[in-house]
Amino acid sequence: LGLDLEELEEIEEDAGLGNGGLGRLAACFLDSMATLGLAAYGYGIRYEFGIFNQKIVDGWQVEEADDWLRYGNPWEKARPEYMLPVHFYGRVDHTPEGVKWVDTQVVLAMPYDTPVPGYKNNTVNTMRLWSAKAPNDFNLQEFNVGDYIEAVLDRNLAENISRVLYPNDNFFEGKELRLKQEYFVVAATLQDIIRRFKSSKFGCRDPVRTCFETFPDKVAIQLNDTHPALSIPELMRILVDVEKVDWDKAWEITKRTCAYTNHTVLPEALERWPVSMFEKLLPRHLEIIYALNQMHLDRVAALYPGDIDRLRRMSVIEEGDCKRINMAHLCVIGSHAVNGVARIHSNIVKNSVFKDFYELDPEKFQNKTNGITPRRWLLLCNPGLADIIAEKIGEDFITDLSQLKKLLDFIDNEAFIRDVAKVKQENKLKFAAYLEEHYKVKINPSSMFDVQVKRIHEYKRQLLNCLHAITLYNRIRSDPSKSFVPRTIMIGGKAAPGYHMAKMIIKLITSIGEVINNDPYVGDRLKVIFLENYRVSLAEKVIPAADLSQQISTAGTEASGTGNMKFMVNGALTIGTMDGANVEMAEEAGEENLFIFGMRVEDVEALDRHGYNARDYYERLPELRQAVDQISSGFFSPRDPGCFRDIVNMLMYHDRFKVFADYEAYITCQGQVDQLFMDPREWTRKVIRNIACSGKFSSDRTIMEYAREIWSVEPSATKIPPPNLPRD
């Protein structure tokens, strides 16, 4: 057709249907489940508008709507034949024939299927996303005097459910539309699962399957954080009210079917819905949650008689001025397995977040360290590196990443060292050209590409990175003739539109860049670049070009991180704290092959006990004081000297994430990075060792563990015969 595939690829919009790591993790999991031959479905919402596109205007983030479906989506197939009703509002009738949820408003859920192919195994799984549609009698069934036009226009109200993704990462905003979205995806999905269960006979004699005894043997539901927590009361409602299963039996079935993955320990991220909202929107589910909670508390009271405080701590219902439902507690009591997403995080889950629940049911709690798919994050985004690896060890590593260990044999192979360095340099040149073409910024491709890309959040400590950039700048200014290791510091990521501090951090980064990048004394020894509109398609370009990966969250705050793994497999070295999966990366590669610095979880806890006083560090460390004073005085914002007072005030008086406490260790560690970068051969040997030790962080390994230890299914390496060949 005379079309260029690469050109088309560049035009295609990202399906940005999630916020950050959690949604991206699910996408990697779908790829791995298909590649491992598991009969698995990914369910979600087909948002008309995904995560906003980020524009930087005058140094500030400006959001614009992500109209990703504007030119159509060739990968999806609408399946109107599987459309399902979802009910909201109404009231509950307790009748002799059982409980009835009546006078509800109905919204239709229209499924759209996207194929998920496994890697060269002829397996194609399905991702099914639901879109909200108003029924044709919407607002017309009401015995109303009937403004027909108004009623048809009101269809938008129902269809708004799947209109837009809430753009908060690691933050809970208790909006009714968000709760509607959560119930919408759950109710549609559970009906779909049960329809599929009933139509599969499994050797059963009934014309229609009515016995749910075997349901947990045939169905596993993995809750990706608490957002689909309503699966638990919804499955109970269907089993008890609709299918007339005995309550205790239904509870057994529900618990054996559901498992819950916790993705964060930040208190502001935990979902706590007002009871009043449930009362109105989902009255039957509220009754079920009350009954489940009563059962749960009766058990706790029997085991710990008289321990009233324990009952209060463990209740699904939080008492107070506004009664709330703690969705995490609901997930824990309603699941047979609860897991964190890296070893350190799973330990925090057991020993602090859900400590009481762990004491009650220790066998429930597991760890499943996150992973990434090597198909997207090595083969597709870094073909040059994949090629030289395949040259040395064959192609089997693509579906068995542990085979990268074989690269350890080539750590002293001069030709391989040269090849690895050459591929990195080519990726850097290519990214530099991309930056010049699209953002009109010229960078020095022989400089160290120092990259921190992730959502902007105080706990991720982009501010620590800023303080290092300012310190570097001040050192160059104070001795311009001294030789410095040239760096291009790239920071990218979106801030939630309502998160004031995160937006200020972006403005600070762009302002620092403005000063440093235009200072003739600095030249091309230091540049600070804000990468606009960071998203998967940009990650695929920047990660293969990175020399240094920054993973610098306060110990105990980043549950796992997955960007850290992408950088490791793509030949960047990591500077990071002992947090999340960094701990296991250091364990795999050897701590001496990462740049580990700063407080451990124990140190953070000790500092909390003694009280963190930022001013101590400010007064003791002259370079820190100089940097903070520059931010404060308007050195980086001459036209608005008070611009950054909120940032400085936070850092000095209420910094939950203790930026100053790690400043000194971070600067020292960055000095060690510079030292090694001046020895390209040693640097590249460390890179090879990192790549060779990254095999554990394949999502294939993660999914094998979920399959065997939570879902009780065996992955299969069997290649299905292609459709053009007869089976057997």
Automatic annotation (TrEMBL):
Keyword Ligase belongs to the record: no
EC class of the enzyme, as a word: transferase
Pfam family, one: Phosphorylase
SUPFAM superfamilies from the UniProt entry: UDP-Glycosyltransferase/glycogen phosphorylase (SSF53756)
Keywords: Allosteric enzyme, Carbohydrate metabolism, Glycogen metabolism, Glycosyltransferase, Phosphoprotein, Pyridoxal phosphate, Transferase
Modified residues (N6-(pyridoxal phosphate)lysine): 566
Single GO molecular function: glycogen phosphorylase activity
EC number: 2.4.1.1
Protein name, entry field: Alpha-1,4 glucan phosphorylase
Cellular component terms per the entry's GO annotation: cytoplasm
Gene designation: Pygb
Organism ancestry: Eukaryota, Metazoa, Chordata, Craniata, Vertebrata
Chain's role: Glycogen phosphorylase that regulates glycogen mobilization. Phosphorylase is an important allosteric enzyme in carbohydrate metabolism. Enzymes from different sources differ in their regulatory mechanisms and in their natural substrates. However, all known phosphorylases share catalytic and structural properties.
Cofactor(s) the protein requires to work: pyridoxal 5'-phosphate
